């Protein structure tokens, strides 16, 4: 017996016609001796709509979850998890229409256990026996992505884009041969194909590179799904749900580094506009100050990313710049404002119109001059760099958000990634 997990994102199940095509794609993967489990997202736009309802009911305007609000997040999860339940039933019906035995499995029926961190839960354990036996008997299982259930039987969600992680976790639990992620693009590209027309589809990408790409802004796979696939050794393929079965659809394979023969110095460019830059001016300079500041931010649930520290003009003072997700900027400034006098900070500034642009590649490990190419390409376009962060396989720069697309295109060209 072999097993395959397939996942379809929101646009792919956006209406009943698309769900019918998904059913045909699933039908084409049926083979004797192979069990199929299909993870689905909510119809596109549906999760946003549900988030809006939850926030309105709680008296919160705007869009997006209020992460960290303990008396909001548990019921937020109850509301936003419903979108996926609808698509499981619809796909099961569409498969039965084709004469294929199929049933939906809600997370409590499997069960898929998570921790209790509402709105950003992590999968702890998936009981594979019942669902495994059912798919082995030829009944296609349709599972709602993005959610699970705690030991206390409360519904949780895994964070936006979490259906990718559901699919990989299920593939690991079922010991599936592969996890196929069907989406609205036909693979992982050298950069977001929606902003760079010359972006190229990659045939393969290593887990390490994909992890950096995802965490640096390429939303084609949720970061946690790549982490999990890497840790559990699940081969992941990203491919299009917009082609009829039988048409060529090679997609992109996310795989171990040693399976990639030609290692590019730079394989991809990612960007994120969800950034804010906070500057702490004239901070008293003595041991323990950084620990104090970043301790306060951590207690306030602020995810700090880049950090730059430099001597200030006044003796005995320094300036500290850090970045965090834009939606956490207000919280960060409030938290710093509250301890400003105690820590000794002269002034606090925040800039929200910044973006992070990153180049990623495993070949960088053994190549010099990668940073120079990046800085030269940006300088030629007159783009100013406000902060820099590096790891073994990536370089990120913080820039004015207005230059995001210009910078991404310039870097894509500078590293020779443009399609012919
Ligand atoms: P789904 O609803 O199927 O989960 P998402 O919208 O979450 O789909 O992810 C697919 C989108 O990711 C694409 O439409 C594309 O705009 C975006 N994207 C960003 N970077 C990349 C990249 N490097 N390669 C492919 N797609 C990317
Ligand atoms: N429907 C959820 C979201 O929009 C999960 C997902 O699509 O992966 O974030
Ligand atoms: Mg997604």
What does this structure look like?
This protein has 420 residues and is of the alpha/beta class. The chain folds into two domains: 2-184, Carbamate kinase (3-Layer(aba) Sandwich), CATH 3.40.1160.10; 269-414, VC0802-like (2-Layer Sandwich). The chain has helices spanning 16-29, 46-57, 70-80, 82-97, 129-136, 163-173, 207-215, 223-232, 289-299, 329-343, 370-380, 404-414; strands spanning 2-8, 34-40, 102-104, 112-114, 123-126, 140-144, 147-149, 155-157, 178-183, 204-206, 236-240, 252-255, 268-284, 307-311, 317-324, 345-360, 387-391, 394-400. The strands form four sheets. Strands 3-6-2-1-9-11-12-10 form an eight-stranded mixed β-sheet, with helices on both faces. A six-stranded antiparallel β-sheet has the order 14-15-13-16-18-17. Helix 1 (16-29) links the parallel strand 1 (2-8) and strand 2 (34-40). Helix 1 crosses helix 4 (82-97), helix 6 packs parallel to helix 8 (223-232) and helix 11 (370-380) packs across helix 12. The protein is globular. The chain starts with a strand and ends in a 6-residue tail after the last helix. The mean pLDDT is 95.
């Amino acid at each position: 017996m072999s097993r395959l997990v397939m996942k379809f994102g929101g646009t792919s199940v956006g209406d009943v016609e698309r769900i019918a095509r998904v059913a045909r794609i699933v039908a084409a993967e049926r083979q004797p001796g192979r069990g199929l489990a299909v993870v689905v997202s909510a119809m596109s736009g549906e999760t946003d709509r549900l988030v809006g309802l939850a926030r309105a009911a709680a008296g919160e305007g705007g869009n997006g979850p209020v992460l960290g609000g303990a008396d909001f997040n548990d019921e937020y999860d109850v509301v936003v998890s419903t979108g996926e339940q609808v698509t499981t039933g619809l796909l099961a019906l569409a498969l039965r229409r084709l004469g294929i035995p199929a049933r939906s499995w809600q997370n409590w029926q499997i069960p898929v256990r998570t921790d209790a961190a509402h709105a950003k839960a992590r999968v702890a354990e998936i009981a594979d026996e019942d669902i495994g036996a059912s798919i082995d008997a030829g009944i296609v299982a349709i599972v709602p992505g993005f959610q699970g259930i705690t030991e206390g039987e409360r519904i949780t969600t895994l964070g936006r884009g979490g259906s990718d992680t559901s699919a990989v976790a299920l593939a690991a639990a079922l010991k599936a041969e592969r996890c196929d992620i069907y989406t609205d693009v036909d693979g992982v590209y050298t950069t977001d194909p929606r902003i760079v027309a010359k972006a190229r589809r990659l045939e393969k990408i290593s887990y390490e590179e994909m992890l950096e790409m995802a965490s640096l802004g390429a939303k084609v796979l949720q970061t946690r799904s790549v982490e999990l696939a890497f840790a559990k050794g699940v081969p992941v393929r990203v491919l299009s749900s917009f082609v009829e079965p039988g048409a060529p659809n090679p997609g992109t394979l996310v795989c171990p580094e040693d399976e990639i023969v030609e290692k590019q110095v730079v394989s991809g460019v990612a960007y994120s506009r969800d950034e804010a830059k906070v500057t702490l001016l004239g901070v008293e300079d003595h041991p323990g100050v950084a620990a104090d500041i970043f301790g306060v931010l951590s207690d306030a649930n602020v995810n700090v990313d880049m950090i730059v520290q430099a001597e200030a003009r006044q003796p005995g003072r320094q300036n500290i710049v850090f970045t965090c997700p834009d939606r956490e900027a207000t919280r960060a400034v409030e938290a710093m404002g509250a301890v400003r006098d105690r820590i000794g900070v002269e002034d606090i500034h925040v800039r929200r119109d910044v973006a992070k642009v990153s180049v990623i590649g495993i070949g960088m490990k053994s190549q010099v001059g990668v940073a120079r190419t990046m800085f030269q390409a940006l300088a030629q376009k007159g783009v100013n760099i406000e902060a820099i962060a590096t790891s073994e396989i990536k370089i990120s720069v913080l820039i004015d958000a207005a230059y995001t697309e210009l910078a991404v295109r310039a870097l894509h060209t500078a590293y020779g990634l443009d399609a012919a």
